[in-house]
Design a protein that fits this description.
By secondary structure, the chain is an alpha+beta fold. Helix content is 42%, strand content 20%. The chain contains eight helices and ten strands. It has a four-stranded antiparallel sheet with strand order 2-6-4-5. A hairpin with a 5-residue loop joins strand 4 and strand 5. It is globular and about 55 Å long.
């Protein structure tokens, strides 16, 4: 198995944690051609207005989706971790309405849209898994809308840190309670719709209240109950329970 195919097998394993594929479907997924691309920190993978022909899987590193306003300000609309397929929807949406860029050196696997659509059509179980993946993305977008629109700065910051903690834990990247958060406070500010100065003060407050600890870019949720109460955090929107079972014969 090639390096790229071995890496893509990690995404297949993620999908199968929600429900195993039949042998033919799994073999078809493993046979999908993929190519590896290496990006440095803060490099665009997709730019707004482009017409991409491939979808992106994060093998290592961290990326975000973002929108840029005419005045040059930026709103990050989601973060994506190793094991995430960033833009499955681009297989059907012709023009990119947002950009995708890295935050650290990142390895991306590129899968052609034609291959994604073909395998989804030939193997309904794979199509359902892809569909569920995009539905989880949509659920995260909805929660972020609530976060920025209705929570105050301390609440929304706590909520985002708890989301990172839950998502990193799901992929085995929380160790002794700590997770590495390879984004700057400016990046966090762009995700939360606040200024970098306000972001810095909020992180100081969370540390001062002993809700979190930080070391360099590592974060520890020191008081989980206090953070959950502050943020009103409920991980149901991440849908760890997986998809509904398909009817027999489907």
């Amino acid at each position: 198995m090639s390096e790229a195919a071995t890496a893509f097998a990690n995404y297949i394993a993620k999908l199968e944690r929600r429900g195993a594929f039949a042998g033919e479907a799994r073999a078809a997924l493993l046979g999908v051609p993929v190519r590896i691309r290496h990006f440095g920190a803060y490099q665009d993978i997709v730019r707004e207005g482009e017409r991409p022909q491939e979808s992106c899987f994060v093998e290592s590193g961290l990326v975000s989706r973002y929108r840029t306003l005419p005045n040059g300000s930026r709103q990050i609309v989601s973060f994506h971790l190793p094991g995430d397929m960033v833009d499955l929807q681009s297989a059907l949406v012709i023009v990119a309405d947002h950009g995708i860029r890295t935050h650290v050196p990142t390895v991306i696997l590129m899968i052609a849209h034609d291959d994604i659509l073909r395998i989804a059509a030939e193997h309904p179980s794979v199509g359902r898994a892809f569909w569920f993946d995009t539905l989880v993305d949509a659920a995260i977008f909805r929660e972020w809308t609530v976060n920025v629109g209705r929570r105050n700065t301390r609440e929304r910051t706590a909520h985002l840190l708890l989301e990172f903690n839950a998502r990193f834990a799901a992929i085995g990247m929380v160790r002794d309670g700590w997770f590495d958060l390879p984004v700057t406070q400016n990046d966090l500010a762009d995700a939360l719709g606040i200024t970098p100065v306000h972001m810095n003060r909020t992180m100081q407050w969370l540390r001062g209240e002993r809700l979190i600890r930080t070391h360099s870019r590592a974060v520890l949720i020191e008081d989980m109950a206090g953070m959950v109460a502050l943020a009103g955090f409920d991980p149901v929107y991440l849908h760890p329970e997986g998809p509904r079972s398909a009817p027999d014969g489907v």
